[in-house]
Design brief:
287 residues; alpha/beta; two-stranded antiparallel sheet; binds zinc ion
């Protein structure tokens, strides 16, 4: 497959299982291409029509989908989907909601599964002080431990932070998360949070909520985050962007999020597609 960077011609070699084996360091795509940096294709919401969902994503220019297995029962399914589809990669870890379920077998199992080269990151891990489905002290402990595990595995982390910005930042700093790098997914922080994350080399991933009518404050914050630090995501089946709010979300809808980012930053849709794609390929080490 060939892409062009200004005058540079770049070759991407896709092996049979869909891995990108070599590229130059910098390139831009002439053809519009998007990446859904975070979805949950293994969830039951997609059981009925997964193939059609993946096909629709492809037809909308979504070249890759990163599906996140958040608990034990979902890891194998996420990997299975990634193994079967060249356009799907996997991210595995224990979500803060499930932190209380971690036992002696959890980390050895994850270590084994993460050896599969379709696993491109460790997560989502972090803190959810909104729903508090696991006790906070357990969430904090497991978040720290899993940053250590990701480093051991040599994977970037995908961080879930809901109503816990300060504590998330403190842990990222004290655990030296800049050593593995990663993404703050479904970003909901303020300017200071965005800056602190970028200072650690983290990317900030924008969900469909940026299209919501009442998200003016969030749009203002995103406007000030450089495109070079942004990714776009669906978090499907959740957080469906306008004009489909209220329905099930799916990776093809990531274009509405990218479109909104383009609008608020006053750049073209193609520019947002190019840069966020390059960022995603870089953080997931596919460049
Ligand atoms: Zn999340
Ligand atoms: Zn998620």
């Amino acid at each position: 497959m060939k892409f062009f960077l200004n005058s540079d011609e770049i070759n991407l070699d896709f092996s049979l299982n869909g891995h990108v084996t070599r590229t130059r360091t910098r390139y831009f795509y002439k053809s519009m291409m998007l990446i859904d940096s975070h979805a949950h294709l293994e969830m039951p919401e997609f059981k009925r029509d997964l193939e059609a969902v993946i096909q629709r994503a492809k037809e909308s220019g979504v070249e890759y989908i990163f599906t996140v297995g958040t608990e034990k029962k979902d890891w194998k399914r996420a990997l299975e989907i990634a193994d079967l589809h060249p356009s799907v990669y996997a991210i595995l870890g224990v979500h803060p909601h499930n932190a209380k379920e971690i036992d002696d077998q959890t980390y050895p199992m994850l270590k084994e599964l993460c050896r599969n080269e379709k696993v491109r990151a460790y997560g989502e891990i972090g803190l959810d002080f909104f729903r508090n489905l696991s006790p906070r002290d357990i969430q904090l402990k497991r978040f720290r431990e899993q940053i250590g595990l990701a480093k051991e595995l040599g994977l970037p982390i995908v961080v879930h932070d809901r109503e816990a910005h300060q504590q998330t930042l403190e842990i990222l700093k004290s655990e030296k998360a800049e050593e593995c790098g990663g993404i703050i997914h479904c970003f909901s922080g303020n300017d200071e949070m965005a800056k602190a994350c970028m200072d650690m080399g983290f990317y900030v991933s924008i969900p469909g909520s940026i299209t919501f009518k009442n998200a003016e404050g969030f749009r203002e914050i995103v406007k000030r985050i450089p495109l070079e630090s942004l990714l776009v995501e669906t978090d499907a089946p959740f957080i469906t962007p306008e004009p489909f709010r209220g329905k099930r979300n799916e990776p093809s809808y990531v274009r509405y999020t990218a479109q909104k980012v383009a609008e608020i930053k006053k750049v073209t849709f193609e520019k947002v597609a190019e840069i966020t794609t390059e960022n995603a390929l870089r953080v997931y080490r596919l460049l």
